[in-house]
Amino acid sequence: MVFAFILKRNAKSELKAAFSLFSIFSRNESTILAKEENAKISECCIRASSEQHFQSVKQSLLLYEHFVDESEETNLLQEIETHLKRVRYESTHWDDAILNYRETEIWRWNQQNKQIIERIRKLAFSKEVKSIDFVHVLDLAENGVIKPHIDSVRFCGRIIAGLSLLSPSIMRLVHENNKNFVIDVLLKRRSLYIMKDSIRYDFTHQILGNDESFFNGVKVPKTRRISLICRCEPQ
Ligand SMILES: O=C(O)CCC(=O)C(=O)O
Predict the structure, then answer these.
(1) Domain spans of the chain?
(2) Is domain 6-231 given the CATH code 3.30.70.20 in the classification?
(3) Which keywords does the record carry (predicted)?
(4) What is the pLDDT of residues 5-31, one digit of tens each?
(5) Is residue 138 within 6 Å of ligand 1 at its C-beta?
């Protein structure tokens, strides 16, 4: 079944200009130890259009580098391939929000991979929210792009967690009512992001195409990328 998570899309206009209007703050190469899970939250891969903007969203955007190791990535990919092998790449999504991709949903995982999914859910979802039982798997081809959108509130609650496999990419978040409020996130291979509350509801998110894929002025070559997206149930 193809997903219908995507509700809104914004025109691309103004985005390119936004970073030049503000001085861009880049976080120091520092990490904060998250007490609850002993996982490292990385701020160095998050760039906001101003320090004030960064401060106002840092509680609702979390990034964990090296969330899985290489062998865990290999195991996940092996299982995912068995689900994707009969799925064809599509050039465009039903609402034109994604280009050059294929997708599936996985309900049951082998024992090893199930533990990784449980780790994601434990870290991302508090006790008050119920996670959706299946994982959305999105395979974005090298020339694939996810355009700006906000996930539909009909299908997804206040928290979205995504694990990036195979390739780094840039996720751009733009405030719906203030197009100058822009956050770029370097999603490294094997990293996990968690978007919640304000970031999830008030910002569009997108994955930049390879030609626009730069962080701090440095090219981030995006090849084929597979993401595992865990969501919680709508309220
Ligand atoms: O691939 C990702 O990490 C984001 C996917 C996405 O934008 C979505 O499913 O709404």
Answers:
(1) 6-231
(2) no
(3) Dioxygenase, Oxidoreductase
(4) 443 443 343 444 344 333 334 444 333
(5) yes
